[in-house]
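During the first year of the project, the team set up a workflow for recording each protein of interest as an amino acid sequence followed immediately by a discrete structure-token representation. This format lets reviewers and collaborators read both layers of information side by side without switching files. As required by the reporting guidelines, we include two representative entries from the current panel. The first entry is reproduced here exactly as it appears in our internal archive.
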Amino acid sequence: MKKMHIRIGKDGKVRLDVEGAVGTECRDFTKLFEQAVGEVTECQLKPEHDRVKDSVSEQTHESGT
């Protein structure tokens, strides 16, 4: 199950932290919230994002041999 943690700082900056999403699911999951809040000034992807890409690449390579 995906979860979104929302933190709003005293300076008004909003930070989202997503759990349970892999690959592009994270950006898809937060898209509507980001549009409602406003401009995204920074995005840091977690290691899970790259790990999914690597596993897809490995599967493609294995099926090609």
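The second entry, processed by the same pipeline in the following quarter, appears below.
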Amino acid sequence: MRIKIITDSTSNLTPELAVKYDIDIIPANVVIDEEEILDDGCIDPHKYYDKIDKSKRSYTSVPSKQIIWEVIERNKDFDFLLIVNVSEKLSGFYSASTTIAKQYKKQNPDAPEIKIYDSKGVSIVLGTIAIKAAQLVKEGLSITELIEKLDEFRDNDIHALLTVSDLKKLYEGGRISRLRYLLADIIHAYPIFSLVDGELGLIDKEVGFERTIKKLTSLLKNYYKDDDEIFVWRANTKPRENQKMFNRIIEEIETPKIKRIEEFYVGFIITCHTGIDVYGIITVRNFDLI
């Protein structure tokens, strides 16, 4: 069976990774001060970060029916399409993909079977799950076996932890109160977030940047055994004052054991809500960029 992996651009996969693993990508939209931008990989990340940093209002939106339809259409010669989407609880992308896939199949009965898969993730968490799916395809698994292994990987092996050093965007978006925003600004308190069952949840907080990042890395011990080997994605945006300290603390992690660190640029959907001063790591067991 010829299986094609498709994901959406909130996965933060670079064009190079998408080509390497033969993953097709559905572009999302971002709106910055009423300017609509298609997240098709053509905009330079640093230009985008400048726009976000200066913006008064920003948000993301799912692509048009036509865009999703066109991606399905150009992959119609495969036997099965697995569309790995951003978490259903974080975006309308999953619902839109589901609706359009049903419409496409209804109008094209001979089209490949299509399954919409909820990654319960966003950013490179989603991207990593899409890459893992593509790696499993190469193992020659049936679609049932592939989904079972992907579920296990998604639910047990991959974790995200992040903090935000400027809460302005979270306040403007209504995600924190004015009181919490002002208090955090005064005492330099940082929230620590994680993906919990497909949603970004506040799991801890700390005072001071260095203490926050050390607390963030210590939380890894809740997810893995000491002798586990993990792949680490380290978040990056534009050069910032605390970047070197952040990098150093990540590299000093002793348990679990780090086998590889790669950087990724935080994408549209996260920075629209958090701003560019976001620091995070995605840790993955049973994974490598092979």
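For the second entry, the following points were noted during internal review. Confidence is low (pLDDT under 50) at residues 175-184. Residues 3-28+63-156 form a domain with the Rossmann fold fold (CATH 3.40.50.10440). Both points are flagged for discussion at the upcoming steering committee meeting.
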